[in-house]
Amino acid sequence: MATFSSTIRVPQTGQDGGGTHPPVRGGGGDGGRGEGYPDYGQRLRRVRVGLAIGLTSVTMIFVSLTSAYIVRRGLPTFDDHTGTYIQDWIPVQLPLALLLLNTALLAASSLTAELARRQITRQAALAPVKSIPGVSLGRESGFPWLAVTVVLGMGFLTGQWLAWRELADRGFYLATSASSSFVYLLTATHGVHLLGGVLVLLYAAAVSLLHRPVEGRRIVVDVTAWYWHFMFVLWLGIFSLMWFVR
Amino acid sequence: MVAQDAHAHAAPQGFIRKYVFSLDHKVIGLQYYFLALVAVFVGMFLSLLMRIHMIWPTAMLPLIGEIKPETYLQLLTMHGTIMVFFVLTTAPQSGFGNYFLPIQIGAPDMAFPVLNMLSFWTTFVAFVVMLAAFFAVGGAPLHGWTGYAPLSALTNSGPGEQLGADLWITSIAIFCIASLMGALNFITTILDLRAKGMTMMRMPLTCWAWFITAILGLLAFGVLLSAGILLLLDRNLGTSFYVPLVVVNGQVMGHKGGSPLLWQHLFWFFGHPEVYIAILPGMGVASQLLSTFARKPIFGYKAMVYAIMAIGILGFVVWGHHMFMSGMSPYSAFAFSIMTMAIGVPSAIKTFNWLGTLYKAKIRFQTPMLYAIGFVSLFVSGGLSGPFLAQPVLDIPLHDTAFVVAHFHLIMGVAAIFGMFAGTYYWFPKMFGRMMNETWGRVHFVITLIGTYSIFMPMHYLGMAGQPRRYSQFTEVAYLQHLMPLNRFITYVAFVTITAQLIFVVNLFWSMFKGPKASDNPWEATTLEWTTSTPPPHDNFGGHTPVVYHGPYEYSVPGAAKDYVMQTDPAGVPAH
Asked: Would you state the pLDDT for residue B438?
């Protein structure tokens, strides 16, 4: 009957024919899940989706650097002294103990970040209850997990700086060899991204002191905590590459 | 009941908040569009200087003086860079996409309005830094828009390769960050902000194009950013990522062990998806306009969606076809060649579906439609030289000749631009509440179509005859002398065609203020932007949330009252 029926949807829902009822989608429109503040639940999901997408691009940066690392490691270079092609990849003497300590600091900070995330999730969930007059939830433990995360994060970055100093003492500077160039580049790129995370955590701490609404603060802390976990896993990848593929 | 929470801010007051640091995606879209408009005239001016130099190499030009060979290389570098980044990556995606994506999916704004504003101003900063390269000591870089190392990695390889090249790389790095932020916004918006009833398979093909383009950008620009950072390190901090043991002007440079091929791989891994970023939005616009002005649904909507996805995915595995002459293994070349030819399949599907949309249609030949049909024509013309270049054996004589220049100009410099013209004439009434002048639009179309074909089709012949690209002077070369009349012809046509673009600019700005007032839906189109007022209010739909009941291309539906059914029309289609 219809020549161009390809785009016409025949109602599949079993409801009375004639009208086409729009399928209800979760994507967009007015929100409202079980939270007391429907806007924030939707916003949280949206910001998490945005973070996942953004981390894809960060992943691509490190994928490209890793690929360059691996290929360069296997690439022979022309040596003008012998007139032949030789392998010139000099394994960098990494300060292993220091880097393992830094890894432990970052792991601990990931743990405290997660505790901070869960803490503020609880606070956000209980916020409507607390506003009921006459209801008390007792004394909150209120351990400053967020602040501890910042301290541990700064500790990691300081440790990385000390690792660079150690590398320099061992004669490995940025331009010393291809391998040392990559080590500095990978750790610096990771460090810059982690510093960004630290700055966002400081912002989260600042808005907490300014008594912004807890739901908004929850979104910031939640997303930053996930970002932080990603940075930790990324560091494990970078460290593994530098150590096992040295 | 509940106002869209993503739009928690009320309409802004004050000039700065309304027009400068606006969070409104419509204002941001226009900001991107006008940035691209400025950039395209800068780029066209550079190309005009190049064409003048090619036929009058020793001419003394007013204010500029003589164009030396190295100046010619600087011109072509900046021409390519500005056009590819600040015109083709900006206007189709960030310009029209920012303005119309939220409206077409029924959202009040993009997912992250503040990030959107930051994306634009970061792009603006990138453009300023790029233009600053012209004024640096030594001038703009001369290493081509492709920036191959070691020419680009050494600061003494030529004029403009010191500060100019550093500014160029910095500008591109800033642009990468801006693009990544924009891509994030687009993808989140499409995934999370579609209105009720707007399923993915009910989205207009423009939205699908913006979606896939954003994914391409998300995955590709990070690699370019890495490449640029490595280049900056090589140039300024003595590393040897790209530079092997080299001697420049008798001086041994301190580098050792680097690989120029690394730059090529990193750059083209970005560079190929980049050209699909440039063309996919134009394809989306073409699909949209062909359907609207043919009063027929797009032929094979699902196939169009899968074809766009296929083009996007395949676009990531063909980068080696830009490197056939780099000494790669013939087996690698074979693999890249096969994948490149495979991309022709979804592209052909789209082309035939466009033709299928036009088949037996009652076409309304208004200016937007002329440009949409022109897009299809130019996509075929420019695309067909691709499979030639995709053969490694054929690429041996054709690489770095005018044949390649013809190919990418027809497809990026003309087809993609026609997509932008089509979008401009089509959406102008919705953006500015007035119609552009139809007569002058047709004059502009005819001159531009004939002009661009006349400029770029002969370049295929020039390339096959052996005329290289990026060479500043042919007048002293015996075996190219017989091609000089054709080169002169191209330059004269370029003069006329570039001048004719002023018709478009005058039409654009004059119509903004003096054009005939437009109704809310002058083209009788079905998608959501035509349901709202002209221009759209701050939250796009005047406080009410649209609900979608139909697909985007319900034209000439049997039994319907009019020859189009709007997506938000709740009246059901007769059951059958």
From this structure: 96
Structural domain tally of chain A? 1
Cα–Cα distance for residue pair B295/B38, rounded to 1 Å: 35
The Cα of B491 is separated from the nearest Cα of chain A by a number of Å equal to 41
Q: Which residue has the tokens 């309005």?
A: B113
> What's the full length of chain B, in residues?
576
User: b vs e for A65-78, b when ≥16 Cβ sit within 10 Å of the residue's Cβ?
Assistant: bbbbbeebbebebe
Q: Give dist(CA B484, CA B90) in Å, integer.
A: 35
Check which CATH number belongs to the domain holding A88 and give it. Answer: 1.20.120.80
Q: Residue B252: enclosing H or E segment and its boundaries?
A: strand B251-252
Query: Is residue B125 packed enough to be buried (19+ CB in 10 Å), middle (13-18) or exposed (0-12)?
Result: middle
Per this entry, what is the length of chain A?
246
CB crowding B540-561: b at 16 or more within 10 Å, else e: bbeeebbbbbbbbbbbbbeebe
Do the domain assignments include residue A156?
yes
3-state SS, residue A25: coil
DSSP codes of every residue in B30-95: HHHHHHHHHHHHHHHHHHHHHHHHHH-TT-EETTTEE--HHHHHHHHHHHHHIIIIIIITIIIIII
Residue with tokens 């490190």: A62
Complex ipTM value: 0.91
> What integer is the mean pLDDT of A215-244?
94
**Nearest to residue A99, comparing CAs of A159, A158, A11?**
A159
Q: What is the pLDDT of residue A141?
A: 63
In angstroms, rounded to a whole number, what is the distance separating the alpha carbons of residues B104 and B97? 10
**For residue B193, which residues of chain A lie inside 8 Å, CB to CB?**
27-28, 46
Helical H segments across B295-432, by residue range? 301-314, 330-358, 367-389, 392-398, 402-408, 416-432
pLDDT at A139 over 80: no
Distance from CA of A10 to the nearest CA of B (A): 7
Strands B60-61, B65-66: pairing kind: antiparallel
Helix spans in B465-549 (H):
484-514
Determine, for residues B183 and A27 on separate chains, whether the beta-carbon distance falls below 8 Å: no
Which neighbouring-strand residues pair with A84?
A79
The CA distances from residue B545 to A224, B26, B27, B206, in Å, are 32, 18, 21, 21
In a domain, A43, yes or no: yes
Judged by DSSP in three states, B434 sits in strand
Which residue in the set B237, B254, B572 is minimally distant from A19, CB to CB? B572
B323's tokens: 């490197």
pLDDT surpassing 70 at residue B442: yes
* Chain Cα centroid distance, residue A154: 16
- Asked if A53 lies within 8 A of B219 by C-beta distance, the reply is no
**Interface contact flag, A75 B259, Cβ < 8 Å:** yes
- Just give the CATH number of B24-530: 1.20.210.10
In a domain, A97, yes or no: yes
Residue A109 predicted with pLDDT over 70:
yes
Q: B112: closest CA among B193, B218, B227?
A: B193
Domain boundaries, chain B: 24-530
Per-residue pLDDT tens digits for B37-48: 999 999 999 999
* pLDDT tens string B26-35: 999 999 999 9
User: Which chain A residue lies closest to B106 (C-alpha atoms)?
Assistant: A29
Q: Where do we find the tokens 């918006």?
A: B189
Instruction: Output the pLDDT for position B487.
Output: 96
Contact B233 A181 (CB under 8 A): yes
> A88, B256: Cβ pair inside 8 Å?
yes
pLDDT at res. A206: 85
Q: Are the C-beta atoms of residues B372 and B286 closer than 8 Å to each other?
A: yes
Structural domain for A209, as ranges: 38-129+141-244
Please check whether residue A226 lies inside any domain of the structure: yes
Given a contact cutoff of 8 angstroms between Cβ atoms, the answer to whether B103 and B535 are in contact is: no
Phi, psi of A76 (to 5 degrees): -80, 150
Listed in sequence order, the residues at least 6 apart from A66 whose beta carbon sits closer than 8 Å to its beta carbon are: A237, A241
